[in-house]
Fold:
Amino acid sequence: MTGRLHSTQPYAIGLYRIVVGLLFACHGAASLFGVLGGAAGTDGGTVSAGAWPGWYAALIQLVGGALVLLGLGTRGAALIASGSMAYAYFSVHQKAALWPIENGGEPSALYCWAFLLLVFTGSGAFGLDTLFARRSAQREGSAAEQTPVAA
Structure:
């Protein structure tokens, strides 16, 4: 049973990455473009362009979420996204109360840890990172086969 579960791990991580990236990108799209209900607290509106930290957070959410969703530069995008959520939690939510359940910081805390996990696991299956790595390895392998051995 354990062997079977281990063999499916890249696929589970890939699906996890896709869902987390999609949901995070939706937050950014809502804040930047007013879609999907708009930015929180704006009645369907957007955050003001260039406003600190809301607009920058929304940009990180949209771009970082899209990169994680595609599995492109997953580790770097996930690190930046995780850091932005840690910042959001400690600078916005923790002032109200210690525990995330009390201060409304559950989404920030969960996204922070979800992205930090992806920093260490990578993109898993179905990611462009994996596709590019596989193609690069194939090219290197075929180049090595074509290189004559010096006698």
